[in-house]
Amino acid sequence: MAPRHLRLASRRVPFKVLFILLIFVPICVIGILIHAQHISYLFRPLWDSPPSPFKHVPHYYAENVSMEHLCLLHGWSLRSEPRRVFDAIIFSNELDILEIRWRELHPYITKFVILESNTTFTGIPKPLFFDSNRFRFAFAKEKIVHGVFSGRITTRGTYESPFGLEFEQRRAMTGLLRDSGISNGDLVIMSDADEIPSPHTVKLLQWCEEIPHAIHLELKHYMYSFEFPVDYSSWRATIQIFGPQTGYRHSRQTDLILSDSGWHCSFCFRRLQEFVFKMTAYSHADRVRRKGFLNYSRIQKLICRGDDLFDMLPEEYTFRELIKKMGPIPHSASAVHLPAYLIENADKFRFLLPGGCLRTRE
Fold first, then answer.
1. How far apart are CA 81 and CA 284, in angstroms?
2. Distance in angstroms (rounded) separating the CA atoms of residues 126 and 281
3. Which single residue of 170, 187, 292, 321 could bond 316 by disulfide (Cβ 3.0 to 4.6 Å)?
C-alpha cells in the first residue's frame, strides 16, 4: 500500500506547481511592478552608496557681535569694504517664497538675477509668473535683472528628459549672469528660489577676507511650511567667488559646507493649484504615478498631516535613517529663528507658520 500512496502524492505535486506558476507568480510580478518604487527605496541601503561626506565649516553668529570678531572666529579677516553680491535663481512659480527671499536679502544684494521660462522642465507651456507679478517686487526694481528663456514644448508621443531641459536653463542663466554686470571677485549665490540663505550668512561672506572660493550652504529643510522641519540635509545652494570659469550650477562643487546657513522650504505654496502645478512641472514629475495624486482634497490632507505627496519612502542610504524618517513629519510649534520678514508679516503668510496648514484652492 505504501508505494500506492507515494504514487498518488506524486501526482498531486504538479498541480501545486502549476498553481504557483499560473496564479501566485503573476500576482507577485504585478505587485512588484506596482510597488517597484517602494521596493527600490526600501532596499536602497543595499544597492546604493552615499556620496562622500562634506567637511562642515563651523558657523558663528550672535546679534550685536562685531563683524570683525565673527570673521576672526571663522579664521578670516575683515575686509575694508564688502564684496558685491549677485543672487541668481531660476524661477518657476514660487511668488510668496520669492517675496520673502528678496525682502530678507535686499540690503545685501547688488543684483537679483532671475530667469524664467515660458515652459516647465517637463515641456508644458506656462505663464511668465514673475513678469506678470512685478508689482509685488517694486521695492527691488532697481536691482532686478530679469531674463526669459524660450523653452521647448514636448509633443505627445515624444519624451525629453526634464533634467536636460533644466540643464539648458541653467546654462542660459550663466549667460544672463554675465550680462548682469557681475565682475571677477564678486559673490554669486546659486540656489533655487526656495533655498534661502540667512542674511547674516550673506553678510559674513561678503565682509570676510580669505573665505573659500566656493562653499555649499547647509540649510534647514522644511516641507509645506515652517511647521514641518525635516532635517539639515539641504546642501545644493552655494555661494562662490565669481571668476572667468564660473558656470551656474545646482550640484556639488566642493567638499566644504557652511553649517546652519538658512532655510529650504519645499512645496511651500499658498494655493492647492500651485502644488498641482509644481508636481507636474518640475524635474521629478514622474513621481506622479496616478491621476489621483493631483486631487485637491488628497493634497490638503497630506499637507496637514505632514505626509509625502507622492506616497514615497524616504530617500536614505542607511536602514536606520530610513526607519527613522518613515511616516509623517512631526509638527513643530516653534516659529523662532525664521526669516524676519515672514514674522513681521505673519498675517499675510499665515499658511507658512505653525497651525496654518489649510490652503485655498486657487
1. 42
2. 9
3. 321
